[in-house]
Amino acid sequence: MPEFKSGFVSLIGRTNVGKSTLLNLLVGEKVAAIANKVQTTRTAIKGIVNRENSQIVFIDTPGIHKPKTKLNKTMVETSFTTLTDCDLVLFLIEATSKDIGKGDRIILDKIKEAKRKTILIINKIDLVEKETLLHLIDLYSKEYDFQAVIPISAKDVKYKEVILDEIEKNLKEGPAYYDKEEYTNQTLRQLAEETIREKALKVLQDEVPHGIYVEVEKMKLRKNKQNEEIYDIEATIYCLKNSHKGIIIGKNGEMLKRIGRMARIDMEQNFGTKVNLKTWVKVKEDWQENDLIVNKFKI
Q1: What is the per-residue pLDDT across 272-283, written as a single tens digit (0 to 9) for each?
Q2: Buried b (16+ CB within 10 A) or exposed e, 126-138
Q3: Would the pTM count as exceeding 0.85?
Q4: Across residues 178-207, what is the average pLDDT?
Q5: 188-297: in CATH 3.30.300.20
Q6: What angle, 0 to 180 degrees and rounded to 10, lies between the N-to-C axes of helices 254-271 and 242-249?
Q7: Where are the alpha helices (DSSP H) in the chain?
Q8: How many CA atoms lie within 13 A of 94 on its CB side?
Q9: Which residues contact 78 (CB under 8 A, 6 or more apart)?
Q10: pLDDT in tens, 16-71
């Protein structure tokens, strides 16, 4: 009988490179917020893949960027901390890169420093010609001895088993750290907060999303008159300015209703129960510098 393998795999890369999309693809469930905006992931989210002979625990880290606030600094520190604590690194870069950019260079140097086994994942290959891809593979292969280089499109399910097989090959014998039924270590409350924030990121103007923080104040499971289970969820979206509050609420409350509706539909699919969601918007100007809040994003 084949030995059982397990390990922690850190997903690292610049902002908006497709880490959360890849994590959700590999796990087969939605565990990380996805939006076409930078800094979507703020914490190190664990996604768990249970295979016949292995358990792979993925850590999706915040994208590497230049920190301007206490929150941003914590996010970047979180990403680099996972490098020294994991068994294997998935380093995600974009196929559209012509050379090794500043952000990718910083990550590469940290990987070299940590001396971690690393698989290079080149995402968005559907956007480039073969010659560009080969140049990029050559460029990175000269820099570090990667276990493997895998060109992919993170939205295409055909790459899932290729990546998982390669990861499993590079793990050591070990126990299952989590129950076979689990696919994330996030609580339902955290998943609810992530879902609301993701929907807000998708529909709001560029300057607003990074100044929002969602907190679920109430989450209670009950049975309705039809004896069906339903979650009552009350959440507050915090923002930095009064002008942002107006944008989030929208004319006649339409924007907030839209965010709430999208989040509710997603939660009902994820939780497998009906959801009664109520949302409010409050201004908290300094939350990105507030230790009590920022510390929630530490690992």
Answers
A1: 889 999 999 988
A2: eebeeeeeeebbe
A3: no
A4: 78
A5: yes
A6: 70
A7: 19-27, 70-85, 102-114, 130-141, 160-169, 188-203, 242-249, 254-271, 291-294
A8: 14
A9: 43, 44, 61, 62, 297, 298, 299
A10: 788 888 888 898 866 654 434 334 444 456 788 999 999 998 887 764 444 454 44
Residue 38 pLDDT: 39
Cα first-last separation, the chain: 36
How far is the C-alpha of 281 from the C-alpha of 244, rounded, in Å? Answer: 10
Q: Are strands 5-13 and 172-173 parallel, antiparallel or unpaired?
A: antiparallel
Query: What secondary structure, in 3-state letters, does 206-243 show?
Result: CCCHHHCEEEEEEEEEEECCCCCEEEEEEEEEEECCHH
- What sign has the CA pseudo-torsion 173, 179, 181, 184? negative
Place of tokens 């590999």: 26
Q: Tell me the residue type at 27.
A: V
Q: Give residue limits of the domains in the chain.
A: 5-173, 188-297
Euclidean distance between CA atoms 234 and 237, whole angstroms: 10
Place of tokens 């560009």: 132
And the tokens for 169? 């090959």
Q: Count the Cβ atoms, other than its own, within 10 Å of residue 213.
A: 22
Contact 41, 10 (CB under 8 A): no
CATH number of this structure's domain 5-173, picked from the four choices 2.60.120.330, 3.30.930.10, 1.10.1740.10, 3.40.50.300: 3.40.50.300
Name the pairing type of β-strands 54-60 and 5-13.
parallel
